[in-house]
Design goal:
By secondary structure, the protein is mostly helical. Helices cover about 50% and strands about 5% of the residues. The protein has 4 helices and 3 strands, in the order βαββααα. Helix 2 runs antiparallel to helix 4.
Length: about 210
């Protein structure tokens, strides 16, 4: 998933486990490749640690964490600038809500995909009179043609869900883009007009 462009102020990086600060148009990764594949229990523990170590919002930059192991999306903690106006708060809140909405959708979708895929493989192997593992203990798999049947069925079954997701995704992005433009114009006006500079800190500005 591609992230919305983020325009941020420069600031020194503060070490927070699992998260890095983002400067400008950047999405950094702190995930490292493991030498051995983690067990299901280890994956759950790592997901919990990422959630527990979520940093508090910064006033100068966003925090971006490693990809979530269920949704494959990077958790983001958006900055809360000093003197945030109501319009800027609306933009930040919508962006944060959209991140959470995306995470929830893809977590559910990816878990469903994995479960249905495993069930399909197991049923096809049973039909052939084969167990899930061979004599050496290795997991049996199906060839690409057999798996293509599952992929097509999964896409067909979830066609409406994906279409609804795309509509909501475009709607949210359109609203975010409009709010970003309004915030930019508001800041330009405040910077160009000394008489209006005080409105930057006016909590009633919309």
């Amino acid at each position: 998933m591609s992230a919305v462009c983020r325009s941020l102020l420069r600031a020194p990086v503060r070490p927070v486990p699992g998260f890095v600060s983002a400067h400008g148009r950047l999405c950094s990764s702190t995930a490292s490749s493991a030498s051995t594949k983690p067990t299901e229990e280890e994956r759950k523990v790592k997901v919990q640690k990422t959630s527990i170590q979520r940093p508090a919002p910064s006033a100068s930059h966003d925090w971006i964490g490693p990809p979530n192991r269920l949704s494959n999306m990077r958790p983001i903690v958006y900055r809360v600038p000093e003197g945030e106006t109501q319009l800027e708060k609306r933009l930040r809140t919508l962006r944060q809500e959209t991140e959470d909405w995306n995470h929830g959708f893809w977590t559910k979708q990816n878990v469903t995909f994995s479960q249905e895929k495993e069930s399909f493989i197991a049923s096809q192997l049973r039909a052939k009179g084969l167990s899930r593992r061979d004599e050496q203990g290795r997991r049996r798999t199906l060839d690409s043609e057999e798996m293509a049947v599952f992929y097509k069925n999964f896409l067909d079954t979830n066609r409406t869900r994906h279409a609804d997701y795309n509509k909501e995704w475009y709607r949210r992005n359109f609203t975010i883009t409009v709010l970003m433009a309004r915030v930019t114009l508001q800041n330009m006006w405040n910077n160009l007009s000394p008489a209006n500079s005080g409105k930057k800190n006016d909590p009633t500005a919309t």
